């Protein structure tokens, strides 16, 4: 049977659904399960309501309404701007203004100036939409840089399809899998890999709300996604960790997986996790393979269609000898189309490679180890990318703050702990908590410093620049 041109959400193929080939548990989230046919009917009804818009904002709570909003937009060819549900005023306004979103689709936060288009879970439509061109921007994902407010990463349908297919190849991901995760739905990991992957390949997905060890253990999946913080919490609970022994693949990514956590997972589950590396701008470019070596501390080889190289500070090639460290550059069909409104900020080389900002080592067999980031001003905390500059700007807007420097200090649970060193104009016993709450309210809860240290002065060099490497 021919289903026409390849569809981004291949498993939601209307012809297959009409032929009666259903998947009863296509998506489970927030206590609700929809079959493939119900999902298609409800999402097509969303598509009908939104089809005339160009770009809409979706408050990316982990709910079926979010899934239907995203799928409805993809059916209609409307660009989705996922907004973190814990975003505060400054961050949310920035995302809405910068993206030019015309409306909220589904839930809308209080006090918003934009109209809201409802998502009706029980509505159904069987209208058929043509597949939008593969160059259409599917998502604008906001992600932090070292300075300023987050930038909008434009990801096309074609990039997403290529990125997902490369993972299906690396992980032998098929409709026989049941994917389990509880990651946020406003980033590549939870939304694109974790929701669109299953809808492309027809593997049921169970979203656990939060990625807790217990929820993972009880979900009974074949494939699990987690950021390293999730895996380190799981190995702290051996009973739950052991329950994952029957899974086919435990996948870690978004931040470095500590070697002791890798080893503990092997001990408790009998299997080594698959590690993969990616970015909002590139999707996943490196991974260990379901059928290949899994080496603690290493993120594997380029996935299908990807090439990598290392460059030194003078842009000269660095050998792939397993020891020499260089700036990692990547190219491949899953790369983004630039930052919205910021063509100047896209860090591409003249010959078309993307500078990741990560430093890495490549061994002669093509295995990659991520050594760290070039800038101390990009922090990864709990798998979230957070810019020191955006937090510093918000803290400087607080009347009690004279000077501030934000760094990511090593943290066993979060990888890096966002820590603000503050020279205060006036000190009070509750100042530290007030500053943490200030960031949580203005930017987002997950960007709040976990620690504020009040200091008399910041270490500066002769030019007056703060020496962040001396803070800690
Ligand atoms: C605490 N809370 C506050 C607060 N202090 N709320 C407001 N103001 C304050 N001052 C409350 C919140 O309400 C919330 O409650 C809870 O604290 C959140 O706690 P947390 O400590 O911030 O988070 P935690 O639950 O510990 O989360 C850890 C985590 C999370 C691992 C679950 O960091 C996570 O989901 N990370 C995933 C990030 C991710 O997906 N990254 C992928 C990027 S894509 P409540 O009740 O609401 O919980 C990418 C590409 C690639 O990187 O390679 O994948
Ligand atoms: P984000 O834009 O949130 O996707 O963050 C991308 C960054 O996360 C990369 O530039 C890396 O610094 C980091 N990252 C993602 N996956 C890994 C990994 N497996 N190991 C180390 N760092 C990673």
Automatic annotation (TrEMBL):
Q: Which GO terms describe its molecular function?
A: medium-chain fatty acid-CoA ligase activity
- Tell me the domain of life: Bacteria
- Pfam families named among the record's database cross-references: AMP-binding, AMP-binding_C
- GO biological process per UniProt: fatty acid metabolic process
Chain ranges of the AMP-binding enzyme C-terminal domain: 390-465
Q: Which SUPFAM superfamilies match?
A: Acetyl-CoA synthetase-like
- Entries under Gene3D superfamilies matching the protein: 3.30.300.30, N-terminal domain of ligase-like (3.40.50.12780)
The chain positions of domain AMP-dependent synthetase/ligase read: 35-340
Q: Which family does it belong to?
A: Belongs to the ATP-dependent AMP-binding enzyme family.
Q: What is this protein called?
A: Acyl-CoA synthetase
